[in-house]
Amino acid sequence: MKWFLNDELLKQNPSLKPRRPLEQRLAQRPAVRARLHQLAATLDESVGDDPTADQAEERVTEQVRRLALEVLGQWAREANAHTQAQVMTHHPEASHHGKKKTLNWQTTFGWVSVAEAQWRLGRRGKLLRPFCERAGVRPRGRSRRLQRALVDFGAEESFARATARVQEHDGLDVAAEIVRQQTLAHGAQVSALQVPPPQSSAATLVTQLDGCLIPIVVPPTTGADRRRGKQLLGREARLCLARPQDSVTPRYGATLGSVALTGALWRDTALAAGLGERTHGHGVGDGAEWILTQFQEQFGDQGGYLVAFYHVSEYLAAAALVIQSKDPQGWRRRPQGRLLENKVTAVLRALTAHLEPEGISPAPVRAAHRYVSQRRHHLDYAGARAAELCIGSGEIESGHRHVIQQRRKLAGSWGQEPSAEAMLGLRVARAKNLWHRYWSVTQSALN
């Protein structure tokens, strides 16, 4: 068949190019050939010993792992030799610089090593490490596949526990500090990944915003020992979400930034979820003044904000303990039913009859009256229910738990603000299903 092959056909179908016999090719790679023989011997022994399927899998897996490491090492040696041979072609002015240095990098199969010659451009020019540049590795670095595994474990567990996971699944010894560095570095980058908006705008968009406290370490500003004098504080992490009314998959955004930055993030998240010029925005959450203000600034008259029914009910429940201590639940159900019918005036009238005198503290009835009165324009429960829209903020509360708190409130997970921001970006990206997309475009530049 090779007589009829021409150059054009070979370019279109490289697989048609005649190849040397396998034994001849392996003869130049004795270590790989020896490993293949060992793999075949393991298969023969496993059949003869009559092991269980699990035992056979253990034996074969170990041999395959060793074979993979051997093949990677052989590739590194051959690729290094090929690269070194081309240096003078690309850099005629280059000359050898010093002795060869052993280049090591860690993969999911183990450490790979190669002796790499170094070059210098001219007498005082740039130092070249051609194989490092060609292969995209750094001395004592980690492969992209290993980075992904480290970040995957570090995003869900404390860094110390993540090292135990890596040891369990890949048999690798990796320091907790390496897991921390990789997780936070990729976490800082993944935040910049843009989510393309949907092709069509949503008719109605459900959007929520809320804050929760996470632990933050503030290091001392003076002193050589940074372990002494550090402060452990609670910092508010603000989480927002948005989704079309007929969708159950929200888009998330999170930040430790200012209220203004949070508002801008809230709108960006809504735009990514399908906010258009004619979209009706249905905001729902607690009645915090900063949230109400940001909704108005970011969405204007394009929607309405509803104070979550549960938050109003909390104030009514506290007032009920004072108004009707023998049957507080029975009393609370009456104003709740009136609120669902938008009879806010009737609720205020019922509370007014039992207001505590001025100056008394605590005053739960007066607090409930003030809360309802100041937010009466955000209590359209009848309208929301008629439009089949939610009247509770359980979605954002759940988001706090599985997006932020599940990782940031683990024992031993306290960190400084920059690391907390990076972890928030990573957790949000995973919640937005950006994990696979991020690794499909990310190179191993962080290794």
Radius of gyration: 32 Å
- SSE string: HHHHHEEEEEHEHHHEEEHEHEHHHHHHHH
| Total of helices | 19
Strand order of the largest sheet: 9-8-7-10-11
Main sheet overview = 5 strands, mixed
Oligomer: single chain
Fraction in helix: 40-55%
Strand content: 15-25%
How many β-strands, per DSSP? 11
End-to-end Cα distance: 46 Å
* Average pLDDT figure: 89
* Morphology call: elongated
Backbone structural class: alpha/beta
| Low-pLDDT regions | 1-5
Describe how the helices and strands are arranged.
Blueprint: H1 7-12, H2 22-27, H3 30-49, H4 53-85, H5 87-90, E1 94-96, E2 101-107, E3 110-116, E4 119-121, E5 127-128, H6 130-135, E6 141-142, H7 144-154, H8 159-170, H9 176-190, E7 204-218, E8 231-244, E9 251-255, H10 259-273, E10 280-285, H11 289-299, E11 303-307, H12 309-323, H13 328-340, H14 344-352, H15 364-374, H16 381-386, H17 394-408, H18 417-431, H19 435-441
Parallel strand pairs: 2-6, 7-10, 10-11
Antiparallel strand pairs: 1-4, 2-3, 4-5, 7-8, 8-9
Helix pairs in contact: 3-4, 7-8, 7-9, 8-9, 9-18, 10-11, 12-13, 12-15, 13-14, 14-15, 17-18
